[in-house]
Design a protein that fits this description.
heterodimer, A: 126 residues, alpha/beta, Rossmann fold, 5 helices, 20% strand, B: 354 residues, mainly alpha, 0% strand
Chain lengths: 126, 354
């Protein structure tokens, strides 16, 4: 990962305990983050064009993660998407990857693994 | 008469005001309590994050998170549910250090019904082995809620000694669906596959023995065991599947065998043609899928026939298996010559971006 600048990550996660913990861990890694808890907040945030990656929970209120992912890819928004979901069945993982997710991590998860995978994604983008 | 009416109206008015006041007081009290909890939560969160980031040690963290254990339980629950690895282990260490485990062990023994339930869930999540003697007793409880949480807690702790006792209970209880049964049993961890293998080797080949021991039809128990083998990709389990991998055997078991073999991506030394012509469409479709997964030779002719099957999934997996076994030209030829199966061939090729 380049050291030149901090990356900005959007975390779409309705469990605030978890999103705050991720943000805290990110801060120690020089990763800046914003949190949204409802699905309908994700696209307007992404469209601001200030984020380097999106961490997306599939089970979000108002608009679910799969619909968000489909809209992102339909609108040709080039942002790496890492799915962080409790859905661990193979069919869910394949569906998300086929729909354009770049990474898939199942809950329960290791925050360190999330950071490593995210950094690898960001490196790929760079 | 007027005085009585006036008196009655006053009493009613008074009661209404009293009820409204009670509601307001109750509401305010709750709000204050909630606000207090939110403030407390913020403080706990601050120290928990510092502890997880190794900025403070476990003793220091335990001193900061050591009151209101029921609230603390609600606070810690999302972390126990969503984290694994080092952070999870650290939280386990913290709740041992701050007295939470001790508190809930006492509640598990002497608490009210709902406290026992909460305690069982918590102690299961933090894998507290000291809870096992009581949890084992609660497996026989008349209280179904307590019995259920005890089952989950023992599975979370992974106490293999109690695996078969729990198996017998859950198999008999209609409130557990097959998916839930599998989920409970896989929580015991991969090592349970060895226990199942030994159990089957000892009991499987004797007629009706499984049924007598477990109290359910053999096919139910076998389906469950083979599912667990598949989940953990337990290859030694295949030798136990092979003797019943015959078309006359119970359809349910055959389906679970093929689903497990697909997960394992493990080839068996069997002629699979007989399953491709099986009466049950699920068996046919899963066999075709399995052939594709292990890239098995020699079934192209049968797969070409099945691409016209009456069932959509059989047609789909047959076309998919033709593709996966390296016969893309066959699919292209079906499309080109407008043969039956053209639609499915097109679908599968498009799905694979071809």
């Amino acid at each position: 990962m380049g050291d030149e600048r901090d990356y900005k990550i959007l975390i779409a996660e309705d469990d605030e305990s978890i999103s705050r913990l991720i943000s805290y861990k990110f801060k120690n890694q020089n990763l800046e983050s914003e949190v949204v808890t409802d699905g309908d907040q994700v696209l307007p945030e992404i469209e601001k064009g200030v984020y380097d990656a999106l961490i997306l929970d599939l089970m979000l209120p108002v608009l679910d993660g799969m619909s968000i992912l489909n809209k992102i890819r339909e609108n040709n928004i080039e942002i790496p998407v890492l799915i962080l979901s409790a859905r661990s069945q193979e069919k869910d993982i394949l569906k998300a990857l086929k729909s354009g997710a770049d990474e898939y991590l199942t809950k329960p998860f290791r925050p360190e693994e999330l950071i490593i995978r995210l950094k690898m994604l960001l490196d790929g983008v760079d | 008469m007027r005085t009585i009416l006036y008196y009655a109206a006053s009493v009613i008015m008074f009661l209404i005001v009293l009820v409204i006041l009670t509601i307001i007081v109750y509401h305010l009290k709750n709000r204050r309590k909630e606000k207090k909890y939110q403030n407390q939560k913020k403080k706990w969160e601050h120290y928990l994050f510092k502890y997880l980031a190794e900025e403070i040690n476990v003793e220091e963290a335990a001193l900061k998170l050591n009151s209101n254990y029921f609230y603390l339980y609600d606070f810690i629950k999302p972390y126990l549910k969503n984290l694994k690895g080092d952070d999870f282990e650290k939280i386990k260490q913290l709740v041992k250090e701050n007295g939470m485990n001790k508190f809930f062990l006492e509640k598990l023994e002497q608490g009210r019904k709902e406290e026992k339930i909460k305690a069982a869930v918590f102690l299961g999540k933090v894998e507290e082995k000291k809870a096992l003697p009581l949890l084992e007793i609660y497996l026989d409880s008349d209280n179904k809620d307590l019995q259920t949480v005890s089952i989950w807690a023992i599975a979370d702790i992974g106490e293999q000694r109690l695996f078969f006792k729990i198996l017998k209970i859950v198999l008999k209880e209609s409130r557990f669906t097959f998916e839930i049964l599998t989920e409970i049993l896989i929580r015991f961890g991969r090592d349970i596959c060895g226990e199942i293998e030994t159990f089957l080797k000892e009991n499987f080949y004797q007629e009706n023995k499984l049924e007598v021991i477990l109290g359910v039809p053999e096919y139910q128990a076998l389906s469950l065991f083979f599912d667990i083998f598949g989940y953990y990709r337990y290859h030694p389990g295949v030798q136990l599947m092979e003797p019943v991998l015959i078309p006359e055997y119970n359809n349910e078991v055959l389906i679970h065998i093929f689903k497990s073999l697909v997960k394992m991506e493990y080839p068996v030394d069997k002629d699979l043609s007989v399953f491709l012509s099986h009466d049950d469409w699920v068996v046919r479709s899963q066999t075709a899928r399995y052939i594709g997964v292990i890239n098995a030779d020699g079934y192209l002719e049968e797969l070409q026939v099945l691409i016209n099957d009456s069932n959509w999934w059989v047609r789909y997996y047959s076309a998919w298996a033709i593709l996966k076994t390296g016969n893309i030209d066959v699919l292209k030829d079906i499309i080109k010559s407008e043969k039956k199966g053209k639609e499915m061939s097109e679908y599968v090729l498009a799905q694979n971006n071809i």
